[in-house]
Amino acid sequence: MDFLINTILKLGKVDRRWIFLIIAFVVLIPLLFPLSLPIRATATTQLVYDAVEKLPHGSKVLLSCEYGPSTKPEIHPMVISFLKHCFRNGHKVYVTCLWPDGQFLADEALDEVANNEFQLTYGIDYVMLGFRPGNEAVVKGIVSDLRKVYTIDSRGTKITEIPMMDGITKFEDFDFLFSGSAGYPGTIEWVQYAVDQTNIPMSTGTTSIQVNEVMPYVQAGQVQGILAGMPGAAEYENLIGSPGIGTSGMDAQSVAHLVIVLFIVLGNLGYFIERNREKKQRGY
Q1: Which of 2, 60, 152, 164 is spaced 20 to 30 A from 42 at the CA atom?
Q2: DSSP class of residue 244?
Q3: What is the domain extent for residue 23?
Q4: What is the per-residue pLDDT across 118-163, written as a single tens digit (0 to 9) for each?
Q5: How far apart are the first and last CA of the chain?
């Protein structure tokens, strides 16, 4: 017992630099070697998965990327998983970006999934329309006449020369929309200016902090499910059977939280043990 008490007291007084080092270590290990901790999909994540699964083979899917480097850890795993899900089911994916940074991150995701994993053909299986400035005005333009907004793709190729753009002139020509959104412009603008006017089904993935803002649209049935931050990304990866950076990120987060709680408990135990000792020494 004395050994245990002395150990707790020593751990309670450990230099904070050692604590930072331990936290860094327990975060790094799961990222390099995923632990595959159990993940259970929430109802809102299941709705996203089911919505994509219901689409007929060869559906035309619009993916809108509205996030940047600061929100990449949360949104990027969703985009990668969504691309895998679509390509696995044989859908055609059209990528647009309401944020300038979104184009570079979308290109990165397409390179990983479409080129390396599925080895698909650009212009036949997927196309990168790219970024256009204008915020919600771009959404309105896509709804009314996409070809006025996009005369060329992100590579400079004329839209009329891209095979999979045949018959695509406005938003209603798509079968589904997924918005990977970190804020404005993003999911809400797509709902207000596109989905509500056309009844094209839509799902979304957002940062954790944005969930409460978007959830009313999910509850109203305007948006079919939501991937909520990194947990949502990990749940979606689990549903499609392809663990990725979302899953490993949740492993690292879970282990780090456990270690932090352990240090808090040990610190408090050490405090109470020392206080009791001081009381005994003073005769209290």
Answers
A1: 60
A2: -
A3: 2-35+250-281
A4: 999 999 999 999 999 999 999 999 999 999 999 999 999 999 999 9
A5: 23
